Input
Amino acid sequence: MSRQMKTAPSRALPTLLVLVGILVAPSIVFAHAVVFPKTSKPGAYEKYVLRVPNERDVPTVKVELHFPEGLRVVSFGDVAGWKLQVLTDSAQRVTGAAWTGVLPKERFIEFPFVAVNPKDSTDLTWPTYQTYEGGERVEWTGPDSSSKTPVSSTTISDPAVVPVKVSRTSLYISIIALALALTALGVALRPRGVDVNP
Output
């Protein structure tokens, strides 16, 4: 057997590892402002938690969350070092919350609250606004997971019928990466001819 044919699989390995990395990359969850849990039941009395990381070299000094329509927020948990301002509309319905405090760099914080879910299946979105010392304001309101600052969402549905949500961009990237990986594998394992040199 030729030396070229013996080394073909070993040459293919680095290429495959790179392509697998490209394939997996869209599913990696980066540090974003996210509300947990990601799924819940219709009408449930649910404890939610907004998790916010500090992604800058200066402190975060304010976090504002707007609640989706159909959700009834009934109480908030205390967060040490942070002051809560409850936002309401003209009918005194709770529409959001703003927390002020100091979150240093390379840290995250969680803001808990309890709410009653809508009675029907739906997707709740959680627009969140993060203000840093100096005035920079990051709006976590992007339309899908491929956005630079995606809005967090929670699916309200019967657990037996929870739909799988995949953004179109991530799906397309995954399909292209898979096709490239299969092509690279086929090229790497293709016979190169016989090497007559010892």
The longest strand covers residues 94-103. Residues 15-29 have pLDDT under 50 and may be disordered.
